[in-house]
Amino acid sequence: MEQFDCLVVGAGAAGIGVGCVLQDLNIGRFSILDRGTIGASFRLWPKEMRMITPSFTGNAYGLLDLNSISLRTSPAYTLGTEHPSGDEYADYLEALARYRKLPVQTGVDVQRIRPLDGGGFELDTDQGVLRSRYVIWAAGEFQYPRTDSFPGAEYTVHNSQVQKWEGMPGDDYICC
Ligand SMILES: Cc1cc2nc3c(=O)[nH]c(=O)nc-3n(C[C@H](O)[C@H](O)[C@H](O)COP(=O)(O)OP(=O)(O)OC[C@H]3O[C@@H](n4cnc5c(N)ncnc54)[C@H](O)[C@@H]3O)c2cc1C
């Protein structure tokens, strides 16, 4: 069974970002697992949806771009847009993972995590069992929506269930 120092679950913004940090820290045996593709949640965004924060430089923080997840990179410069769409942002994450040669394994669904008596964790995935000293959960919330979290929620549609707003029935929508 393959042994890792660190496994990151999720290759979204958090997973790819922390992967860059693990690489900078010279953590030897780590891998980033994703049930889908790199940036899978962003690929599921409704077609019209855009990042809210404009991609501009944040000099006070030393960041090239407020929407970047790694120093010296910028979705705005890479994509040529100030408010990236979901697909565009996923393109940025894929380009970054390729550029940094991050050890990403796609198509691996993590189904259960067990702590081991001697330390570390065992992960059940649909591709087999993996062991790791540390696990970083970066699986996000977008793919786990709580659709009954407030009274009246039954009258709403969560973004993750909409492919595009264009063509939806009715005239008025409030996004929040
Ligand atoms: C309309 C909108 C605009 C936004 N604008 C901005 C903005 O301008 N700037 C900004 O910084 N943020 C913005 N955000 C927030 C930002 O998109 C989220 O904070 C970010 O996507 C969260 O990233 P994540 O990596 O935590 O999760 P995700 O992007 O959801 O990534 C999680 C990954 O984990 C994988 N995964 C899940 N479960 C498993 C499992 N069991 N096994 C294996 N893999 C798994 C998924 O496939 C996915 O790829 C915006 C969000 C919305 C909705």
Report a brief summary of the structure.
With about 180 residues, the protein is of the alpha/beta class. The protein has one domain: FAD/NAD(P)-binding domain (3-Layer(bba) Sandwich), CATH 3.50.50.60. The chain has helices at about 15-25, 40-45, 75-80, 85-100; strands at about 5-10, 30-35, 105, 110-115, 120-125, 130-135.
Structural key phrases:
single chain; 176 residues; alpha/beta; FAD/NAD(P)-binding domain; six-stranded mixed β-sheet; 4 helices; 6 strands; binds flavin-adenine dinucleotide
CATH topology: FAD/NAD(P)-binding domain
Q: Provide the structure class.
A: alpha/beta
Low-pLDDT parts are: none
What is the count of DSSP helices, taking H or I runs of 4+ residues? Answer: 4
Average pLDDT number? 92
Distance between the termini: 45 Å
CATH homology group: FAD/NAD(P)-binding domain
Strand order of the largest sheet: 3-2-1-6-5-4
Q: List each distinct ligand once.
A: flavin-adenine dinucleotide
What's the β-strand tally? 6
Q: Please write the CATH class name.
A: Alpha Beta
Q: Give the overall form.
A: globular
What features would you describe in this structure?
The structure is a single chain. The chain is an alpha/beta fold and 176 residues long. It has a single domain (3-161), classed as 3-Layer(bba) Sandwich (FAD/NAD(P)-binding domain), CATH 3.50.50. Helix content is 20%, strand content 20%. It has 4 helices and 6 strands, in the order E-H-E-H-H-H-E-E-E-E. The chain has a 6-stranded mixed sheet. The protein is globular and about 60 Å long. The model has no long low-confidence stretch (mean pLDDT 92). Bound molecules: flavin-adenine dinucleotide.
